[in-house]
């Protein structure tokens, strides 16, 4: 279990990890906690989750890392002794890391180099799932409806502010949403109703990412979410509706004030439910996802217009998170869901191990 990480979503990851650890069958699994501090230090103490929650000093604890050596098959100690094992072997990794350095393909690349099976999307799916700009471009290319948007680099905005403001106001109008391109949990996202708020929102988003996305606000939109599970043949859950406590489903509405509500299943016509489930699976495949994802939608009225808002390749697993709740409502209990995710990780690993990684050319030209 890998949690924490160098991300603004560090605290959310800790809550997700606690929920997953609690739900895993202890008679079936031996859980090895791998906590990553906000500074990037790897902590493998048995109480790693508690230590990260308390923001305790961890310098005195031994550090173990996954190294890009397929012969190791586990965690390698940086300060091993004859009485302390050099390697802790692991069978499968379950990353519950949200945001950059955990959900964006970076740590998945390390897992691949280490030749270890892991839960969730691989490098490409993780990367495009994290980047809201690339994700939107791929979805639009596949004729999947998304809200109109404008993106730019923060540096570019500081150099061409007037032109970009004019382009945003002409194409999108107000209200609009401003987002860091690579972050989740609504961190750094603002709703702007005028130019003054737009400038403040761009400044805030620029604190979290060098690339910024501004999207048209879909008026009177309902926030609908759908969970996806599987590899090449994914299935979709029943959709659920988020009823935010604030003007939109921001970080406080998600995790802090406790006033947001969820309606599961969402009250939608059957044809709209079918459309949302179909679009969820299509988006999952287009973005090269595997294992799990939650697809978020904006729906006008009873479904006259349906837009894919974004996909989350490592959705939240907190007690209030929609991903496991939607599967519970679809007939898959939390513990069974975790079992399936682990089996999917192992299935993909076995399938990929059958592929050739060595080519034997007909001549030895490369030696000459």
Question: TL;DR?
Answer:
With 368 residues, this protein is of the alpha+beta class. It contains twelve helices and 16 strands.
Q: Secondary structure elements and their pairing?
A:
Layout (H helix, E strand, L loop, with lengths): L1 E3 L5 H14 L10 E3 L5 E2 L4 H6 L10 E3 L7 E4 L9 E3 L16 H8 L9 H8 L1 H10 L7 E5 H6 L1 H11 L4 E5 L9 E3 L2 H11 L5 E6 L4 E10 L4 E2 L3 E4 L7 H6 L4 E3 L6 H17 L4 E10 L4 E8 L9 H8 L4 H20 L15
Parallel strand pairs: 1-2
Antiparallel strand pairs: 2-3, 4-5, 5-6, 7-10, 8-9, 8-10, 11-12, 11-13, 11-15, 13-14, 15-16
Structure description:
With 368 residues, the protein is α+β, with helices and mostly antiparallel strands. The chain folds into three domains: 2-119, Rossmann fold; 148-216, ATP-grasp fold, A domain (Dna Ligase, domain 1); 221-351, D-amino Acid Aminotransferase, Chain A, domain 1 (2-Layer Sandwich). Helices cover 34% and strands 20% of the residues. The protein contains twelve helices and 16 strands. It has helices at 10-23, 48-53, 106-113, 123-130, 132-141, 154-159, 161-171, 195-205, 251-256, 270-286, 322-329, 334-353, and strands at residues 2-4, 34-36, 42-43, 64-66, 74-77, 87-89, 149-153, 176-180, 190-192, 211-216, 221-230, 235-236, 240-243, 261-263, 291-300, 305-312. The strands form four sheets. Strands 11, 12, 13, 14, 15 and 16 form a six-stranded antiparallel sheet that branches. A four-stranded antiparallel sheet has the order 7-10-8-9. The protein has a three-stranded mixed sheet with strand order 1-2-3. The model has no long low-confidence stretch (mean pLDDT 90).
């Amino acid at each position: 279990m890998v949690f924490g990480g160098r991300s603004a979503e560090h605290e959310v990851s800790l809550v997700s990890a606690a929920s997953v650890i609690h739900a895993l069958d202890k008679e079936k699994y031996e859980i090895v906690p791998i906590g990553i501090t906000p500074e990037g230090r790897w902590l493998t103490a048995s109480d790693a989750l508690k230590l990260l929650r308390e923001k305790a000093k961890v310098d005195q604890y031994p550090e173990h890392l996954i190294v890009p050596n397929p012969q190791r098959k586990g965690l390698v100690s940086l300060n091993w002794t004859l009485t302390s094992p050099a390697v802790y072997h692991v069978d499968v990794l379950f990353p519950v890391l949200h945001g950059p350095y955990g959900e964006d393909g970076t740590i998945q690349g390390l897992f691949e180099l280490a030749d270890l099976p892991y839960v969730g999307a691989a490098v490409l799916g993780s990367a495009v799932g994290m980047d809201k700009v690339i994700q939107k471009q791929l979805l639009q290319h596949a004729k999947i409806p998304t809200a109109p948007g404008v993106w730019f680099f923060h540096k570019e905005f500081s150099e061409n502010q007037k032109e970009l403001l004019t382009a945003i106001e002409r194409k999108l109008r107000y209200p609009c949403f401003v987002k860091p391109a690579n972050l989740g949990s609504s961190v750094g996202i603002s709703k702007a109703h005028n130019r003054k708020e737009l400038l403040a929102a761009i400044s805030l988003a620029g604190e979290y990412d060098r690339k910024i996305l501004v999207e048209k606000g879909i008026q009177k939109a309902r926030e609908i979410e759908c969970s996806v599970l599987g590899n090449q043949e994914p299935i979709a859950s029943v959709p659920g509706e988020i009823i935010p406590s604030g003007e939109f489903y921001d970080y406080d509405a998600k995790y802090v004030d406790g006033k947001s509500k969820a309606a599961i299943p969402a009250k939608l016509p059957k044809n709209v439910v079918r459309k949302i489930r179909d679009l969820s699976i299509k988006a999952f495949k287009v973005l090269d996802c595997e294992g799990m994802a939650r697809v978020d939608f904006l729906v006008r009225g009873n479904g006259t217009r349906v837009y894919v808002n974004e996909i989350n390749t490592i959705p939240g697993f907190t007690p209030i998170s929609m991903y496991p709740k939607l599967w519970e409502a679809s007939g898959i209990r939390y513990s069974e869901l975790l079992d399936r995710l682990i089996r999917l990780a192992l299935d993909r690993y076995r399938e990929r191990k059958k592929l050739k990684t060595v080519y034997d050319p007909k001549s030895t030209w490369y030696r000459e």
